[in-house]
Structure formats: C-alpha cells, structure tokens
UniProtKB/TrEMBL annotation:
This is Enoyl reductase (ER) domain-containing protein. It comes from Nannochloropsis salina CCMP1776. Pfam families: ADH_N (PF08240). Gene3D superfamilies: Medium-chain alcohol dehydrogenases, catalytic domain, NAD(P)-binding Rossmann-like Domain. InterPro entries: ADH-like_N (IPR013154), ADH_Zn_CS (IPR002328), ER (IPR020843), GroES-like_sf (IPR011032), NAD(P)-bd_dom_sf (IPR036291). It comes from the Eukaryota. Its cofactor is Zn(2+). Residues 35-420 form the Enoyl reductase (ER) domain.
Length: 449
C-alpha cells in the first residue's frame, strides 16, 4: 500500500483523457453504434497520443464478441451508449506510435490488446483483478447500482468509461505496457486468427474453468454454445474433464461444436427439444444422475427464454432473467460449483436462491482479467494444446460490419464468430482456404469472398 501522499501523486499521474486528441486530416474507418440494431461504418479522424503511457495501435483484425450484442440489441441501460461511439474490444494489430513512457514496445511490434483497461498499479491491478481497475473508468454510473464500479473496457459503453473501441483502423491504447501482449510475427508462426481471441474469449473460457475449478475427472455442463461456450468446452477437455455437456437452443451451433471438440467426452444437448419433457435439468440428469460437478453460464442476460421473464424485462420489472441460472442451480450436483461468465447487469426476479443455499453450492462470477492468463494461453496455442481459431466462421472487411453484426446476432449463415479485417490486414482470407472450415460448414455457411 502506498502512503496517502504517494496515492494522490499517482492518481494525478494516472489521469488519462478518454476522448483524446485526434490527428486532423488523417481519416480512418470506424464501426460505430447508432442505435438498436443500427451499426454505421464511418470516417473519423484517427486518434493521437494523449498520454506518455499510450500507444496508437494500427489495427489489423477485430472480432465481434457476444458482449457487443448486448449493445447491438439495445439491451444496455438507456443513456449508456451515445450515437457515434466506436465499438470493439477484441482486436490486434501493429504498434504505430509509442508514448515516451512505454518501454517494452516499439513501432512495428505485433500485439494483441486485451478488452479490459488496466493501469497495472492500483490496488485491484496489484491483486490481478484487472477488470476491476480503480483508475481506468471515470464514469460513476455503475455506482448507483453497485456502490462500486468496474474498470474501463474498450468500446463497451459509457458504463465502462466510454473508451473508443478497436473496430477501427486505429485505436489509442492507454497504459500500453500493461494492455498489449507481444505475439510472434505472422511470418514466423501465427496468423491473426490464431492469436486474436487471446484478447477476450479464449481467456474468458479459461477464466470460466478457473472459477469453476475444472479439474481432471470432473463432469462439466456449459450453457451456451457460442464462441465462449465452445472454447470453455475446449479448455475443460484440455484440463482433463471426464464429461463435458454443451447446451444450447441453436442446433447448428451444437453440430458445429461436435465437429470441433473431442467427441470422447462431449455430449451436446438441445434445450429446445427438452422444453416439454421436463426441461434441461432432467435431460442432464439422464446423462449424469447426480448432476455435474461444475455448471458454467456462458449465455448472458439478453437471452430470456420463458414468457414470464420476457414480459418482466420488457415492462422494466427486472433487468435480467433467471431462466439459465435457475436451470443451473437445479441441475448441478449437491455441493457443486457454479461459474458465471455470461454478462448480467442488475436485478433478477424469481431467482431460486433457496436452491443455491440448501444445496450448498459455490458460485463465482466476473469479467475476465485477461492479463492474468494471456501469456500462459499464448504458450498453449503455440504448443497446439488449445486452438481458439476453430470457432471463427466468418472473416469480413471492416466495411461489412453492419452485416457482420446482423448475421452473428440473428444466427444466420452458420455464424459462430466473426473477425473483421481492416485495410492493414495483409493475410489471405476467408479462413476456410486455410483449413478452418470443413465441408459441412461450407454447406451451412456462405461467405461473400
Ligand atoms: N465474463 C467475461 O469477461 C466475458 C467475456 C466475453 C463474453 N462474455 C459473455 O459471455 C456470453 C457468451 O458470449 P458469446 O460470445 O459466446 O455470445 P453468443 O451470444 O454468441 O452465445 C450465447 C449462446 O447462448 C445460447 N443460449 C441462449 N439462451 C440459452 C439457454 N436458455 N440455454 C442455453 N443456451 C442458450 C445462444 O443460442 C448462443 O449460442 C455473453 O453474455 C457475453 O457477454 C463475458
Ligand atoms: Zn467480449
Ligand atoms: Zn488499476
């Protein structure tokens, strides 16, 4: 802990402007939020360095995350987004300009950026709670609901600082030493698709397993076969889980997952099919009579499945549904572990808290402190222990962002994960030319390229 005098000196030094200066006359392309289901690709001036610890990153690739869909569908609280906000928090590229205090990076370095902005030296960051950084989120909006607030995140609303995102040609990265990870040059080993998901969803999948303490011999059930759920299953298998159940309501996603995960321990379960025969809990118990050791939520608040919660959410009587969490509480074994990486915002009605208490469950939840895991996970990618790129179904130019959001959200064209490329990307795409897709995916997914 620092002495009071030191803290105030540090706070002063850590004040980084969110909307920094721009370079006039150097326009860049950026993906902006303009309202519910309204994505616009526009030209704006590119960002300039605003602080000695900044880097200006020239983006090559930028993915769309399930968390972006909360913004896309207009499910974030009113006023938390402003027209023209630049989206994107899963991106990588090359260092373009370096602030004077950034010592570990040089122009031209190839880097992945994490979604969470960490200062690296506040109390939270020193405890590796990087998503809870005390210094990167100026907004006080969360305090009304939580008394405290998270750290800042790129491109993820004014609740998390209003930082410009990385679905753009350039982005300013504050505290760059802390928030950029150097990756080998693409010519040496890995293309963007191999490493970009270190910025968020691969680390989130790992975090889900860490919070559930997924260990050798465990049985694990995962709700949600989106990119996060599928990669969580991959991580659970890598950690030696005996059985992994993957649950979704979209058949194509379950079929897709079956072709990419180790079939020896995998069971997929379509929630829609079990709606009228005792539900998902009964179906899981058909496979594991005592229930899974670990249950993982990788769905998030904007998918209500029952009429009750759809109605209550639309009337503003609650912010989030209890559908998946109640299914998890009733499904997991007595004394089991629950891990929640799906995003929740606020109040939930009809929450079966008694079930949680009486069954003696343990639950952990949270946004992923990417910096805690990404170095180790890069090694696992290099050793081929993990292969996050298997979830990527679409590569599109940044200019096609509106269509990319639409097919990802509406579950069209076999979409599971989209990566957008800027004009600075010099790799070849689409990915199936390089072996990501198999024949069945080509049948279910069409790409304009
Ligand atoms: N904690 C973190 O740091 C972190 C990081 C990244 C993403 N997330 C969150 O993780 C969640 C998943 O992200 P994603 O990118 O995979 O998104 P996604 O929207 O593609 O995936 C969610 C999946 O859940 C499925 N689903 C909906 N209702 C269901 C139900 N009742 N039962 C089972 N499955 C159901 C959907 O069909 C979809 O396939 C989102 O809430 C996202 O915000 C959290
Ligand atoms: Zn995300
Ligand atoms: Zn911090």
């Amino acid at each position: 802990m620092s002495a009071p005098g030191e803290t105030s000196k540090m706070e002063k030094k850590l004040t980084v402007p969110v909307c920094g200066p721009t370079v006039k006359g150097e326009p860049m392309t950026a993906v902006t939020w303009s309202g519910s289901r309204d994505i616009r690709v526009v030209e704006v001036d590119r960002p300039a360095l605003a602080h000695p610890e900044d880097v200006i990153l020239r983006v090559t690739s930028s993915a769309i995350c399930g968390s972006d869909l909360h913004l896309y569908t207009g499910n974030f609280p009113k006023g938390s987004m402003t027209k023209g906000d630049i989206l994107g928090h899963e991106f990588m590229g090359k260092v373009h300009e370096v602030g004077d205090d950034v010592k570990n990076l040089a122009q031209g370095d190839r880097v992945v950026c994490c979604f969470d902005i960490s200062c690296g030296r506040c109390d939270a960051c020193r405890h590796e709670l990087y998503t809870l950084c005390d210094k990167s989120n100026d907004s006080t909006a969360q305090e009304r609901l939580y008394r405290d607030k998270s750290g800042g995140y790129f491109g993820y609303s004014h609740l998390t600082g209003g930082w410009a995102g990385g679905q753009a040609d350039y982005v300013r990265v504050p505290f760059a030493e802390q928030n950029l990870l150097k990756v080998p040059s693409e010519h040496e080993r890995h293309g963007d698709l191999d490493v970009i998901l270190l910025s968020d969803v691969l680390c989130t999948a790992w975090h889900a397993c860490e919070m559930g303490n997924v260990s050798k011999g465990d049985t694990v059930a995962i709700w949600g076969a989106g990119p996060v759920g599928i990669l969580t299953a991959q991580c659970a298998q890598h950690r030696g889980a005996k059985k992994v159940l993957l649950i979704d309501q979209e058949k194509y996603r379950l079929d897709f997952a079956e072709r990419r995960l180790d079939p020896r321990s995998l069971v997929t379960l379509n929630g829609r099919q079990h709606q009228h025969d005792g539900g998902v809990a009964k179906a899981v118990r058909g496979v594991l009579p005592h229930g899974p050791d670990v249950c993982i939520e990788a769905v998030g608040f904007h998918y209500a499945s029952t009429l009750l919660h759809k109605a209550e959410m639309s009337l503003g009587l609650e912010t989030d549904p209890a559908d998946v969490m109640n299914e998890i509480f009733t499904t997991v074994r007595k004394g089991g572990r629950v891990s929640v990486v799906g995003v929740y915002l606020g109040y939930v009605n009809h929450f079966n808290f008694g079930c949680f208490m009486e069954k003696g469950l343990t639950m952990k939840a949270g946004q992923t402190p990417v910096q805690r895991y990404w170095k180790d996970l890069l090694k696992k990618i290099e050793n081929k222990d993990l292969e996050p790129r298997v979830v990527i179904t679409h590569e599109l130019p940044l200019e096609d962002a509106a269509r990319a959001y639409q097919i990802f959200n509406d579950k069209q064209e076999g979409c599971v994960k989209v990566v957008l490329h800027t004009r600075f990307y010099d790799g070849h795409y689409p990915s199936h030319e390089r072996g990501v897709k198999d024949d069945e995916d080509v049948a279910e997914t069409s790409s304009p390229h």
